[in-house]
Amino acid sequence: MYAIKVELKLNNKERTLMRKHSGYARFVYNYGLALTQGLYASGVKASIAKQINEVKKVFTGYTKKQPENQWMNKLSSRVYQQAFMDLGQAYQRWFKGLSRKPVFKSRKSGDSFTVYDGNGKVLTTSGKEIKIPTLGTFRLKETLLCRYVTQTFTISRQANKWYVCFAVDADRIPPTYHPEEAVGIDLGVKCFATLSDGSQIEAPLPYKQAKTKLGKEQWRNRNKQFGNGRQGIKQSNRAKRFFDSLAKKHARMVNQRQDFLHKTTTEISRKFYRIRIEDLNVSGMAHSRKLSAAISDLGFYEFRRQLTYKSEFFRTKVEVVDRWYPSSKKCSICGNRHDNLKLYDRIYQCQNKSCLAHTITMDRDLNAAYNLLNAPMDFVRQAQPEITLVDKK
After folding, report:
1. 224 assigned to some structural domain
2. Nearest-10 crossing angle of helices 237-271, 206-220
3. 84 and 134 share one domain
4. What pLDDT digit, counting tens, does each position of 281-333 carry?
5. CA distances from 83 to 32, 60, 72, 77, 101 (A)
6. CA-based nearest residue to 113, from 72, 163, 38, 149
């Protein structure tokens, strides 16, 4: 099973409709969360599924019929039903240790909601239109090349763009073979990835490139009335346009980074069968005063995550080398360890005078990639799809 996400081509009326439904879903989710927290505080011992079921009955039989809530009757009923289902799933994930405790949603969390067809799976047609159950037919920016069978549709907003995502109950056909057997990959700040076959991958730095422009725009708009909800100060119209412009720029940076990482990981997964990477402490490296911005801009963790989950599609074997293995300090030819190697030393020269690498200098990252490829099995483990909160304890 995999998901397809395409951008919707909406007019102003349709954008308003989407915002209403996303606010409706947010309202119902917070409504159910508040009542379940109240039931827990009052000492109710029923399961969370029974509690949400009773809360849903109260919402349908009483809350929706109140005069101030008549606006709910003009929106899709599938939205509030799915919101209660999402709340139940959030509690279940919390109980299993896969996520944190559910919290109230706000407008800052973003706009998204899910609808489904109650009659079962539906067939989407190919072309530039898509029919979403209980909402209608909408235009698409891209063309659907074929027809898909699905039941659930999730609509979300990023900056000023709306997207529809639906799951397809099908499996990708894996490649019959990989041109290369194995590769070791060393990640770095100066060069994003150095492969043991000698190739290097340079990464774009979208945040670094846009940092100056973002700073200038924020400085120009420093005196705008941004608003304060506690003091009752409303946000000015120009401030709203400024935040919309800022959101577009940040969304563009995210899209550039994701596009590079997806293309890079797909190319590596198609070419190599066994992929070895180092277990980097990304959260610890991000606390460095000098490297935090560069590491966050490169996306080391996302690179590893994409390689791991794409291993199921491309039938690859992703292995993680222990972070304490001296891949950078160890000579890939004789195995001698160079303990005096500094971070700014970009050339590796073996200290063993009888080694060939003593007279021939080698790129430091390439030497580390060789060591990762040939690391002993005692330092190697299979990459896991996800690091949960239980694993971090």
Report:
1. yes
2. 180
3. yes
4. 887 887 777 778 888 888 888 999 999 988 888 889 999 999 888 888 888 77
5. 9, 13, 14, 10, 16
6. 163
Burial of 371 (0-12, 13-18, 19+ CB in 10 A): buried
Residues 201 and 152 in one domain: no
Position 391 scores a pLDDT of: 42
Strands 152-158 and 148-150: unpaired
Q: Which amino acid is at 205?
A: L
Does a structural domain hold residue 328? no
Which pLDDT tens digit goes with each residue over 38-81? Answer: 998 888 888 999 999 999 999 999 999 999 999 999 999 999 99
Q: Which of 137, 168, 199 is the last residue of a domain?
A: 168
Q: Which of 168, 195, 210 is the last residue of a domain?
A: 168
- Is 343 within the bounds of a domain? no
Instruction: Indicate whether 258 and 153 sit together in one domain.
Output: no
Same domain, 185 and 292: yes
List the structure tokens of 154: 């999730």
Place of tokens 């801009």: 297
Task: Write the secondary structure of 287-328 as one string of H (helix), E (strand) and C (coil).
Answer: CCCCCHHHHHHHCHHHHHHHHHHHHHHHCCEEEEECCCCCCC
Rounded (to 5) percent helix, strand, coil in the chain:
45, 20, 35
Residue 41 CA to residue 360 CA, distance in Å, equals 71
Q: Are residues 157 and 263 in the same domain?
A: no
Rounded Cα distance between 355 and 336, Å, is: 9
Q: Which residues of the chain register pLDDT less than 50?
A: 387-393
Q: Residue 70: its pLDDT value, please?
A: 92
Max distance between CA atoms of the chain, in angstroms, equals: 89
What per-residue confidence (pLDDT) applies to 28? 96
Same domain, 49 and 84: yes
Distance CA 100, CA 135 (A): 32
Query: Do the beta carbons of residue 253 and residue 205 sit within 8 Å?
Result: no
- Distance between CA 166 and CA 242 in Å, rounded? 32
Give Cβ neighbours of residue 354 (< 8 Å, ≥ 6 apart): 334
DSSP letter assigned to residue 156: E
Tell me: do 200 and 95 sit in the same domain: no
250 domain residue, yes or no = yes
Question: Could you tell me if 136 and 40 lie in one domain?
Answer: yes
Name the domain count of the chain.
2
CB neighbourhood size of 75 (10 A): 18
> Domain range spanning residue 233?
180-323+383-392
